Amino acid sequence: MEIKIVKQILEWNEDVSREVSDLLSEKRVCLVNVMGSPGAGKTSLITDIINRLRNNFRIGVIEGDIAGAIDAETIDKMGIPVVQLQTDGACHIEAMSIQHMLSFFNLDEIDVLFVENIGNLVCPAEFNIGEDFRVAILSVPEGDDKVVKYPLMFATTDALVINKYDMLPHFEFDDARVERDVLDLNGKAKVFRVSTKTGDGAEAFCGWLSEKIAAKINN
Fold first, then answer.
1. Phi first, then psi: what are they for 154, rounded to 5°?
2. In 3D, which of 2, 1, 74 has the Cα closest to residue 43?
3. How far apart are CA 55 and CA 216, in angstroms?
4. pLDDT exceeding 70 applies to what percent of the chain?
5. In the list 37, 166, 181, 211, which could disulfide-bond 147, CB 3.0-4.6 Å?
6. pTM over 0.90
7. What is the pLDDT of residue 7?
């Protein structure tokens, strides 16, 4: 009985995610789902993306957190349209929440919406939110075993950003192993080594990102 209930919830979420996707396709808005653990550097990566791409695309952000509005305040100070989504304990964002949040944006004035999902490597991977593609972030201090421990997150992502790459000399982190593990699960995933502190690798990642966004909004 419990398995049946879970299946029904996921089917319901899929229905709403298709509605979100259809609306954003009509408006030519690209939706990017950014996922990773607490402290992996999701907000730092998004702010770096904004700084690099804001002259090319009109950007909006949905900040997901269990509580608080610290990250949304950071984005707001950059002059970017942002909405804070508080889940009050829920470990993921569902498509219905995104559907509701869209009403707070003028979609005719947005090219790309970044969603910073709730910080963990389990629940967010299970729920489509109408996104065009997913970006998973794994930071060097988290360890190089996470792909094996949390395979769904990395099996469903379009790109993996190995973040805080400047810290590699200080940790026993085998980035080649991580890339092999990801590609074994998901041969189409792109892997980028990035340091938002030094800027290394960010240009390559943002170049890939720009191509993906442009393909959606110019289709």
1. -90, -20
2. 74
3. 18
4. 93
5. 181
6. yes
7. 45
CA distances, 151 to each of 73, 77, 120, 122 (Å):
32, 36, 13, 9
Question: Which residues touch 122 (CB under 8 Å, ≥6 apart)?
Answer: 91, 150, 152, 153
CA distance 144 to 178: 6
Lowest-confidence pick of 11-15, 197-201, 204-208:
11-15
Q: Are 191 and 160 in contact (CB under 8 A)?
A: yes
CA separation for the pair 107, 88 (Å, rounded) = 27
* Phi then psi dihedrals of residue 72, to 5 deg: -65, -40
Q: Which helix (H) or strand (E) holds 162?
A: strand 159-163
Residues 6+ apart with CB under 8 A from 55: none
Domain spans in the chain, listed from the N-terminal domain onward: 2-217
- Is-contact 80 54, C-beta < 8 A? yes
Amino acid at 82: V
Question: What would the CATH number be for the domain defined by 2-217?
Answer: 3.40.50.300
Model pLDDT, residue 3 = 36
Q: What span, in angstroms and rounded, lies between the C-alpha atoms of 51 and 41?
A: 15
Q: Across residues 83-101, what is the average pLDDT?
A: 83
The whole-number average pLDDT for the span 134-142 is 98
1 versus 143: the higher-pLDDT residue is 143
